[in-house]
Amino acid sequence: NQEQKELRNAAIKLSASVKAIQRDMEWKLPDSVLAGMIRDQSYWNRVALLTTYPYELLIYHGDSLHFWTQNIVIPPYSSISQKEGTGFQKFNNGFFLVIQQFISDSNETVPWYALALVPVKYEYQTSNSYLKPHFSDWFKVANYFKISAEKVENYLPVNDASGEALFYVGIDPADYSGRASALALVLFLAAL
Question: What is the pTM of this model?
Answer without folding.
Answer: 0.83
